[in-house]
Automatic annotation (TrEMBL):
UniProt-listed InterPro entries: Leu-rich_rpt, LRR_dom_sf, SLRP
Gene that this polypeptide is encoded by: swi2_1
The protein, known as: Protein singed wings 2
Pfam families: LRR_8
Domain of life: Eukaryota
Keyword annotations: Leucine-rich repeat, Repeat
Chain segments annotated as coiled-coil in the UniProt record: none
UniProt keyword Repeat present: yes
Originating species: Sipha flava (yellow sugarcane aphid)
Length: 307
């Protein structure tokens, strides 16, 4: 009769022990903090890959910097609470956030810099919805697909400076309702109407952010190289408004060159504009021409009175 209660007691002890083991297994083990003698930013500023990761525990969260890819000790499940991650000297020419960042769903700040990354594969996935700062500067990005940030609903700061971008279409940033700061300097922009959205900030209700370094954005390509982006875009926008392109004139206006003016201000730009009204069947010249038109082409018309 006594054996049965004893047997029951033994079963209860084993069950409790197993339950305790399961409970302990679900508690994250605190990550081992590796003492570092340099800051994370200094670590990634080193000119050569370090082939290791370093970490530091701050009051605002745990931070890790990895050079030349991840390393085994930082792929453990212990790091799923990691909030700040810096990657530099990435070993590949592409980066797949869905694969590489899956162990770190709690990230709020991500920096990928000083690498030869030319392309972001896919999109930054929904599990990074808490991300507030994304730094993709000093890479070799040649284009950014419009949908790459579509799930970044909490992003407040986006740094795309010092890449090889020539254009950035508005849909790319329309997915970022909380964006406050955008950084774009350090690349050769194709200065044409594709970038007119820069002139509408912050008046456009779709864009509540500010381009923090717009005064350092430079035009590149075959036209206006070395000229500041925003003043050139203003000239192009004014030309589009002033050009007599509607009937009956149907002229075509081009901003051929831009030279520095002589008003004593280094930022003053002097446009050189061609208005082509050739072979339009005109009997009189357009009533109004764009400001500072330097060349007017009217051959092939029936104009009898010039003034």
């Amino acid at each position: 009769v006594r054996a049965y209660p004893e047997k029951m007691t033994w079963k209860m002890d084993v069950s409790g022990y197993v339950a305790l083991l399961i409970l302990l297994a679900t508690i994250p083990t605190p990550p081992i903090v590796v003492a570092v003698t340099v800051k994370l930013s200094e670590f990634c500023a080193l000119p050569t890959p370090q082939n290791k990761c370093i970490s530091v525990n701050k009051t605002d969260g745990y931070r890790v910097a990895c050079s030349n890819g991840f390393h085994e000790e930082y792929l453990a499940e212990d790091y799923f609470l990691l909030q700040t991650l810096m990657l530099c000297h990435w070993p590949l020419d592409y980066f797949d956030p869905d694969v590489s960042l899956r162990p770190y769903p709690k990230l709020t700040k991500l920096m990928i810099t000083k690498s030869n990354i030319k392309e972001i594969i896919g999109e930054f996935p929904p599990f990074l919805r808490n991300l507030k700062t994304l730094n993709l500067s000093h890479l070799n990005l040649e284009r950014v697909k419009p949908s790459v940030f579509r799930y970044m609903s909490s992003l407040e700061v986006l740094d795309l400076s010092y890449n090889k971008l020539n254009y950035l279409y508005p849909p790319t940033i329309e997915y970022l309702p909380k964006l406050k700061q955008l950084w774009l300097a350090g690349q050769s922009w194709f200065c044409k109407n594709d970038l007119f959205w820069l002139l509408h900030l912050p008046k456009d209700p779709l864009f509540n952010f500010k381009v923090m370094d717009s005064n350092r954005m430079i035009c590149g390509g075959y036209k206006y190289p070395g000229k500041p982006v925003i003043p050139v875009l203003r000239l192009l926008s004014d030309l589009e408004k002033e050009c007599p392109s509607s009937p009956p004139d149907n002229c075509v206006c081009t901003l051929d060159h831009i030279v520095h003016g002589n008003k004593g201000a280094s930022h003053y730009l002097h446009p050189m504009i061609t208005v082509d009204c050739s072979y339009r069947g005109l009997k009189m010249l357009p009533k109004k021409l764009p400001y500072n038109t330097t060349t007017l082409l009217v051959q092939g018309n029936q104009v009898r009175i010039l003034f």
